[in-house]
Amino acid sequence: MNKTKKYLPLLLGVSIAVGIFIGGKLNFSDSSDKLFTTNSKKDKLNRLIDFIDYEYVDAVNTDSIVDVTVNAILENLDPHSVYIPKEDMQRVSENMKGDFVGIGVSFYTYKDTIAVIRPVSGGPSEKIGIKGGDRILYADEDTLFGKNFSNEFVVSKLKGKINEEVNLKVYRKSEDTLLDFKVKRNHVPIKSIDAAYMLTDDLAYVKINRFAESTYKEFKQELTKLRRQGATQIALDLRGNPGGFLNIAEKIVDEFLEADKLILFTKNKRGNIDRSFATKRGDFEDAHVFVLIDENSASASEIIAGALQDNDKGTIVGRRSYGKGLVQREMQLGDGSAVRLTVSRYYTPTGRSIQRSYENGNKDYYDEYFSRLESGELVDPEKMEIADSLKFVTPKGKVVYGGGGIIPDVFVPLDLSMQNETFGLVTQTGLVNYFVFEQLDKQREAYDGLTREDFINDFIIGDDVVEGFKEYIRERFNSNVEFQEEIKQYIKASLGDQLYGNGTYEQVINQQDIMIEKVIVLSQQN
């Protein structure tokens, strides 16, 4: 357990950081005249900053002072009211928009070179013949190799304006030659659907990693394909999904709920209530839906789980969710930065608020995961602390609870065999990916002719590959490590991702996922 606790802050920190940045977002509609009338409190801050700017004995970057001031103010509110500096805005906006303009490659900064993992399917680079394993050496005569370039510099050369051309010089190892390509930049999708495929003859699987502007369109397209393949049930995997746009979550719920069913309602500090109802648009209302959640499913993920649970629709499977019941609005600050401010709380159809307490400060709030782990809640539902005062009842008489997340209908414990420090190190820090890339780079042609389906169903990672990985770790960290059998699945998943993409990673990993196994059993009983 101590090893688990030592490693997990990295995973938790990444998940929370992403969750904060893409928390529920609405348009900021109040006028600037109404919001920013002059008063003494605001004048005090302005006068102080001006005083420092003009009179302080040393040169001071007042922009940094403002950033610190804004962050200090927001830290006194709630954990999800956050400041987004201007240098982060483009990345955050692109992530939530669901695309960017570029050449369309997935790449590593490998050693001192830009190495293409694979071109994005249907993107500009794939269309002109760039392949996995290619090294991009020059872009418009700018050097992209060596030790003196930054990742930001590389990205600035590969991204650009729509239909703008960039001349690339690419080294292809298999041909031992330098090739010239002229790529016309175009929109490149940032997929929010990690995988969509059939688990059984009638049970479909869809994994959503966030709720961006493009998510509903992606989801609808995949749902249509899956129905054509015979899907009458669906496993909607929201594990690790930190949320995103509230209205996108509403649209996805609408696919499963009948018209006029309440999805959620929000309430602001003035007591104004806005209700959202399902429409007649849903194409999957007659199907059974299983929603997979865990301790890192937050915000919009919880809206979907709560709306379905409170309307007695489907089955929620997994572990108690994160517990974020706050809604943010984004306000631009005029210099390229922005604030996302909590403006209301949302409630599930039965009236539950699932926001957990943040009265003891942000650190305690984010450390609650460890409290759940140490209490045993993640492996035993009987260890879960539930407040009877927050008991609610669905239309069909099912008891549900508010406060601190969505409690699943069917509990599936955390697989502790895959949570130890060593296993976490190799599966979550990119070491497997780098190892696989190097192995693939040596014998890429060996996989020519191997179809994605044959790889998923029949390809086996041998013991010699695992031994090679152990040696790879020893050379870099001067330490001996032992891995359980599951490491083979992660090596295979990474290899499949680099060869094929298109959800191969998830489809391989799911073959040994205990929650997926549980859902398949439940679907056969349904």
TrEMBL record:
Q: Which domain of life is it from?
A: Bacteria
Q: Name one GO cellular component term.
A: outer membrane-bounded periplasmic space
Q: Where is the Tail specific protease domain?
A: 176-359
Q: Which UniProt keywords apply?
A: Hydrolase, Membrane, Protease, Serine protease, Transmembrane, Transmembrane helix
Q: Which GO terms describe its molecular function?
A: endopeptidase activity; serine-type peptidase activity
The record places domain PDZ at 99-174
Whether Transmembrane counts among this entry's keywords is: yes
Biological-process GO terms, alphabetical: proteolysis; signal transduction
Which parts of the chain span the membrane according to its record?
7-28
Query: NCBIfam families, alphabetically?
Result: prc
Identify its protein family.
Belongs to the peptidase S41A family.
Q: What is this protein called?
A: S41 family peptidase
